Automatic annotation (TrEMBL):
Taxonomic path: Archaea, Methanobacteriati, Methanobacteriota, Archaeoglobi, Archaeoglobales
Single GO term (MF): isomerase activity
Pfam families to which the protein is assigned, alphabetical: SIS
Start and end residues of each SIS domain: 35-179
Provenance organism: Archaeoglobus sulfaticallidus PM70-1
Family: Belongs to the SIS family. PHI subfamily.
Biological processes annotated in GO: carbohydrate derivative metabolic process
Keyword Ligase set for record: no
Name the UniProt record assigns to this protein: 3-hexulose-6-phosphate isomerase
PANTHER family reported in the protein's UniProt record: 3-HEXULOSE-6-PHOSPHATE ISOMERASE
Keywords: Isomerase
Length: 192
């Protein structure tokens, strides 16, 4: 029989709370402003990430669709060709995920699309080729931190913090567009 002490759960929640508090004071609002401007001024928005960062990307794409943006998830069968007036937003803690780097390179060099990255690694390959870099501190898979590794293995802190940041960004965009939750409900899926 498993004996539940709850110790790890409470420690995880405290660690996440502290991590979010640190994000609140460390986020570069100038970069966030550039990301918002890029979203607002783009014809279409393409979003991608791999693995769990991909789930974060899909969640953000859904919210942008609810806000009325023309948005696509890279890799889906209904995603059209990206064009010069479009924005590609990539989400990658390491900024080195090969599939994401390769696709981003293609969008940048072949098409000339604007590139934004959400990453923990401001000196990564993705960051170096991006027009907008928003740094979300989080332990990436390659770092060694025994305490965090035991509580939140691999990229968990980056993924959770990115999700929270992007939901905060949605709130800002909701305000900028003068929309309400009722406006979002008009685009919410009913075929589910």
């Amino acid at each position: 029989m498993v004996v539940l002490t709850g110790e790890m759960i409470l420690e995880f929640l405290e660690t996440l709370e502290n991590h979010i508090r640190e994000l609140r004071t460390s986020i570069d609002m100038e970069s966030v402003g550039k990301l918002i401007e890029s979203i607002v001024s783009s014809r279409s928005i393409f979003i991608m990430g791999a693995g769990r960062s991909g789930f974060v990307a899909k969640s953000f794409a859904m919210r942008l669709m609810h806000l009325g943006y023309n948005v696509y998830v890279v890799g889906e069968t209904t995603t059209p060709k990206i064009k010069k007036d479009d924005l590609l937003i990539t989400i990658s803690g390491s900024g080195e995920t090969s599939s994401v780097v390769n696709i981003t390179m293609k969008a940048k060099s072949m098409v000339g699309s604007k590139i934004a990255v959400i990453t923990s690694s401001p000196n990564s390959s993705l960051a170096k080729m991006s027009d907008v870099v928003v740094v979300i501190k989080g332990k990436v898979k390659t770092e060694k931190d025994d305490r965090i590794s035991k509580l939140a293995p691999l990229g968990t802190m980056f993924e959770l913090t990115s999700m929270i940041f992007l939901d905060a960004l949605v709130a800002e965009l909701l305000n900028i567009k003068g929309l309400t939750e009722d406006n979002l409900k008009e685009k919410h899926a009913i075929l589910e």
